[in-house]
Amino acid sequence: MAQKGVLLDQDQFCCSVCLDLLKEPVTTACGHSYCRSCIEGCWDQDVLKGVNSCPQCRQTFTPRPALRKNNKLAETVEKLKKTGLQAAPPPALCYAGTGDVACDFCTGSRKQKALMSCLACLASYCDTHLQPHYEFPAFKKHKLVKATTQLQEKICSHHDKLLEVYCRTDQQCICYQCTMDEHKGHDTVSPAAERTEKQRQLVMSQQKVQQRFQEREKELKELQQAVESLKHSAQAAMEDSDQIFTQLICSIERRRSEVKKLIRAQEKAQVSQAERLLEQLKQEIAELRKRSTELEQLSHTEDHIHFLQSYQSLSSISVSSDLPSIVVRPLQYFGDVSKTVSELRDKLKYFLKGEWTKISTTVNIVDVVLPPEPKTREQLLQSVRVAGLR
């Protein structure tokens, strides 16, 4: 239990700068104790300002006081070390990283992350060094804001004072001294009052942006629907045209097959007739050749009786003249085929004209006529809407 009590009280033996057990403790006139090296390091950093202050209560000392070792406190710390008890580990340190605001009062190479910035002190504080602003009345009137690196932006560049006034005439933040100099007689208000007005305008701007956003979203959906409608119409037209051309090709192939069969049938009939005539002609030529030979022999005989008797029998056989004359005229023989082909050509032209009308009607469904070079998005959107309704 005794050890537990020591642990509960050992925070008073820690330096508020390095957060470790006091080493060669010294006490300032305001009653706060620090490691000698820690407090002297703080004052060495402020040597250019010519002001030495307590890191906790900010009490200033002019001139720089001579620090003396607090022997009683040093003995107590030594006793703690001899008993084997160590100071309770300080709270988990949160060091400032990239993009963080570092505490202006932490010493050493690594500084803790600042939690708040004081607009009166123009400094940023970690949790430890921020405590005086909560404990001492002199600091409670200081305005604390979330830690920021933009403290200098809140200071007037002409007078090095806090910007606490807003000039509506020049539309900028100024300090109180500015209202007496270059901004004298201007329309000035507090930043809070101007923020209220600007906040109202901001709400109106947000409403306009939201309305514009909804309008554009609606236009986007309509445009997407029109594009999808155009795609579906074009696809339907492609499928209809493919079907029409497929039927057309099948019909032409069928007609071609029929014409080929007709031509072959008439060719077969005409060739058969011609072959019969050729056979008859060959037989007649052979008969005529035989009679010519007999007559030739009869003309050279010296037997008058034989000549007279043979002549009578040979001359009684006359040449038949009832054989048809054959003239090769393809158009005459295949006249029916030519007529059929001509009729088929006329029918095909009529059929193609009708089918082409269907195809043209189908294609016109997806014919998008946009005005040349639309000047505005509204004109383009209206054109696509009209095309989508076709």
TrEMBL record:
<dbReference type="InterPro" id="IPR001841">
    <property type="entry name" value="Znf_RING"/>
</dbReference>
<dbReference type="Pfam" id="PF00643">
    <property type="entry name" value="zf-B_box"/>
</dbReference>
<keyword id="KW-0479">Metal-binding</keyword>
<dbReference type="InterPro" id="IPR017907">
    <property type="entry name" value="Znf_RING_CS"/>
</dbReference>
<dbReference type="InterPro" id="IPR013083">
    <property type="entry name" value="Znf_RING/FYVE/PHD"/>
</dbReference>
<dbReference type="InterPro" id="IPR027370">
    <property type="entry name" value="Znf-RING_euk"/>
</dbReference>
<feature type="coiled-coil region">
    <location>
        <begin position="206"/>
        <end position="240"/>
    </location>
</feature>
<dbReference type="GO" id="GO:0008270">
    <property type="term" value="F:zinc ion binding"/>
</dbReference>
<dbReference type="Pfam" id="PF13445">
    <property type="entry name" value="zf-RING_UBOX"/>
</dbReference>
<feature type="domain" description="B box-type">
    <location>
        <begin position="151"/>
        <end position="191"/>
    </location>
</feature>
<dbReference type="Pfam" id="PF25600">
    <property type="entry name" value="TRIM_CC"/>
</dbReference>
<dbReference type="InterPro" id="IPR058030">
    <property type="entry name" value="TRIM8/14/16/25/29/45/65_CC"/>
</dbReference>
<protein>
    <recommendedName>
        <fullName>Fish virus induced TRIM protein</fullName>
    </recommendedName>
</protein>
<keyword id="KW-0175">Coiled coil</keyword>
<feature type="domain" description="RING-type">
    <location>
        <begin position="15"/>
        <end position="58"/>
    </location>
</feature>
<keyword id="KW-0863">Zinc-finger</keyword>
<dbReference type="InterPro" id="IPR051051">
    <property type="entry name" value="E3_ubiq-ligase_TRIM/RNF"/>
</dbReference>
<feature type="coiled-coil region">
    <location>
        <begin position="264"/>
        <end position="298"/>
    </location>
</feature>
<keyword id="KW-0862">Zinc</keyword>
<dbReference type="InterPro" id="IPR000315">
    <property type="entry name" value="Znf_B-box"/>
</dbReference>
